Amino acid sequence: MLQVLGHQLVDIDNDNNISNEDWNKAIVVSAKELQSKDFSQLYSFTGKPTLREEIMNHLALANGEVITKTSLGKQLDKKNIYQKNALPQLIQTGAVKEDINSGKLSLHSELFKSAIRFHLKSLEEN
């Protein structure tokens, strides 16, 4: 992932001064690229979202809000987040992290979060 981001950052920078704008552009381009590569094994960017994708969508859109297993279940209209072992499998595969002390759930990386956000935004626009 770092290689993809670094490569995009070098390609985007045209004045030998990497700015916040360069970073933002590189993240969007990298997220798009990784949707079809590394992240495609963790999240399906095509078709109707499964419970796993719905869980990750909520975590991607959290915007700093603390999300625990209890609050996640409420946000998903009381869907059983353990159905088909959805949440435990996400934690086991590393797609979702759980802070042992606080119980806070989050996606494994900011780049993964950006890839999902970019995907959801493109769905809204279409």
Keywords, separated by commas or semicolons:
126 residues, mainly alpha, elongated, two-stranded antiparallel sheet, 6 helices
Describe what is shown at a glance:
The protein is mainly α and 126 residues long.
Helix-strand blueprint:
Layout: H1 2-12, H2 20-35, H3 51-60, H4 69-75, H5 86-93, E1 96-98, E2 105-107, H6 110-125
Antiparallel strand pairs: 1-2
Helix pairs in contact: 1-2, 2-6, 3-6
Mind explaining what this structure looks like?
By secondary structure, the chain is mainly alpha-helical. The chain has six helices and two strands; from the N terminus they run αααααββα. Helix 1 crosses helix 2, helix 2 crosses helix 6 and helix 3 crosses helix 6. The longest helix is centred in the N-terminal third of the chain and has 16 residues. The radius of gyration is 16 Å and the shape is elongated. The protein starts with a helix and ends with a helix.
